[in-house]
Automatic annotation (TrEMBL):
The gene is maiA. InterPro entries: Glutathione-S-Trfase_C-like, Glutathione-S-Trfase_C_sf, Glutathione_S-Trfase, Glutathione_S-Trfase_N, GST_Zeta, GST_Zeta_C, GST_Zeta_N, Thioredoxin-like_sf. GO terms for cellular component: cytoplasm. It comes from Symbiodinium pilosum. SUPFAM superfamilies: GST C-terminal domain-like, Thioredoxin-like. This is MaiA protein.
Length: 214
């Protein structure tokens, strides 16, 4: 398999975590998003959206969209499972994952942040405030759920990391990059720390990737 991705991309990080948890080997292919390499003809031939990641299977199939890739990997290699056993539990985990992937990430990804600056003409201060606002809105709701729902354990659901954790951790790391105040979210911080103690999360982290920049 080949993973076409970028070290700092939170969606790419999700897939790298899943690959590491599953113990699946892959070739790392980097595209520098800030240089626009994902909009070049070579990458657009793989993914017409021009977004990372794209997983290229051993058979040559091309899979875009991080959550679709993660669920494909979970079906390809069922152990360890990334979703719990019952339909209700799986729905809960997906709802937590989607709160990050569908409600925070789409308004805070790189192309949106770049659009705020050019052509809309806002400066970096406004860009940062935009990012922090949407993280605060959604993290407040996530914190309430994770702190009050009995299914929360060491991780988002029980005592084994899964799909929700795979989505949460990259968002926390991005929040730290943008100086988000994490003080109001002790449960999120606790879960993040528990995840980073798992080798798969640490090995997949942005700073550990071959294209990482300081």
């Amino acid at each position: 398999m080949k993973l076409h991705n970028y070290f700092r991309s939170s969606t790419s990080y999700r897939v790298r975590i899943a690959l590491a948890l599953k113990g699946l080997a892959y070739d790392y292919v980097a595209y520098h998003l800030r240089k626009g390499e994902q909009r070049g003809a070579a990458y657009l031939a793989l993914n017409p959206q021009g977004l990372v990641p794209t997983l290229e299977t051993d058979g040559g199939a091309l899979l875009p969209q991080s959550l679709a890739i993660v669920e494909y990997l979970d079906e390809l290699q069922p152990d360890p499972p990334l979703l719990p056993a019952t339909p209700l539990e799986r729905a809960r985990v997906r709802s937590l994952a989607y709160a990050v992937a569908c409600d925070i990430h789409p308004v805070n990804n790189l192309r949106v942040l770049q659009y705020l600056v050019a052509p809309l003409g806002h400066d970096a201060a406004v860009q940062g405030e935009w990012f922090r606002h949407w993280v605060a809105v959604e993290f407040a709701a996530l914190e309430k759920r994770l702190s009050e729902e009995p299914e929360t354990g060491r991780f988002c659901h029980g005592d084994r990391p899964g799909l929700a954790d795979i989505c949460l951790v990259p968002q926390v790391i991005n929040g730290n990059r943008f100086d988000c105040d994490m003080t109001p979210y002790p449960t999120i911080r606790r879960i993040h720390e528990a995840c980073m103690a798992v080798p798969a999360f640490a090995e997949a982290a942005p700073e550990r990737q071959p294209d990482a920049e300081t």
